[in-house]
Amino acid sequence: MRHLLDIMDLSVAEIDELIATANDIIARPAAYADVCAGKKLATLFFEPSTRTRLSFEAAMLDLGGKVLGFSDAQCSSSSKGESVADTIHVVSCYADIIAMRHPKEGAPRVASMHSEVPVINAGDGGHNHPTQTLTDLLTISRELGRLNDFTIGFCGDLKFGRTVHSLISALSRYTGIKIVLISPEELELPDYIQRDVIDKNGLESYKTTDLLEVMPQLDVLYMTRVQKERFFNEDDYLRLRDSYILTPDKLDTAKKDLKILHPLPRVNEISVKIDADPRACYFKQVRNGKFIRMALILKLLKEAEA
Ligand code: CP
């Protein structure tokens, strides 16, 4: 049974194929309107979500399938103490594919070991978010026209930002990528990503606390929210939450064709005044998320049937 737990579960060729399918769905949506008729997607969200859950559900509905699930663990029997293993065992009797978000790192992997249907990791703690990475790759490829030879700045909470961890892993397999890491010292990238992904793959990288210093060299700026829910101490969160606030004046030295991404939700790190700037791509990113998830559901269901 094929699952998607980590972006590295997919080869570069498979990611290219998913991007091609997503682009075809964007161009010819009617051709995909019934391809999942009779199939059911379960969305099991043990942690809050707007984009990921609703884009998964919209994706399945637009493929002609049906959806079931829960958006709050308190409404499920996990609130009575049911294990992830038992929950998945039960849900895989009702659904053909499962998208699951959980606050504990590794929970989707445990789920995959007890599932009779494909499990998709829709975000596990501060660890991974592979379908956000597929969304990001589709957006970069559509906006830049390539997935090689560019400089990307990751700004904000690089410690807890699971979308950052997944995207850096994915980019380690492309050529000519320069990674610029912009964060306060306390929110730097975890050592294991620096060591096992950046250093091991010889990725060019540069670390700074100063966004303005590096702004002129960036082709892509990936802003992130400081992840309040992962802090042990509220005072630390309050001290760090506004470390970076992107306002129009800070783009004075940016490239005219810079692409500004953010996985969202944003809190205060991108001024709403940026939304009208043609360089802002974060709402296009949201839209792309549904199409790449349609492509992924199709691929995993097809492989499960083979
Ligand atoms: N990008 C993302 O994961 O957003 P949600 O938390 O709203 O799903």
Description:
- This protein is α/β, with parallel strands linked by helices and 306 residues long.
- Helix content is 36%, strand content 15%.
- The protein contains 10 helices and 9 strands.
- It has helices at residues 12-27, 51-62, 84-91, 107-112, 130-144, 162-171, 191-199, 211-214, 234-240, 282-305; strands at 40-45, 66-70, 97-102, 119-124, 150-155, 177-182, 204-208, 220-223, 259-261.
- The chain has a 5-stranded parallel beta sheet with strand order 7-6-5-8-9. The chain has a 4-stranded parallel beta sheet with strand order 2-1-3-4.
- The longest helix has 24 residues, at 282-305.
- The relative contact order is 0.16.
- The mean pLDDT is 96.
- It binds phosphoric acid mono(formamide)ester (CP).
- The site of phosphoric acid mono(formamide)ester has 9 residues, from α2.
Fold topology:
Blueprint: H1 12-27, E1 40-45, H2 51-62, E2 66-70, H3 84-91, E3 97-102, H4 107-112, E4 119-124, H5 130-144, E5 150-155, H6 162-171, E6 177-182, H7 191-199, E7 204-208, H8 211-214, E8 220-223, H9 234-240, E9 259-261, H10 282-305
Parallel strand pairs: 1-2, 1-3, 3-4, 5-6, 5-8, 6-7, 8-9
Helix pairs in contact: 1-5, 1-10, 2-10, 5-6, 5-10
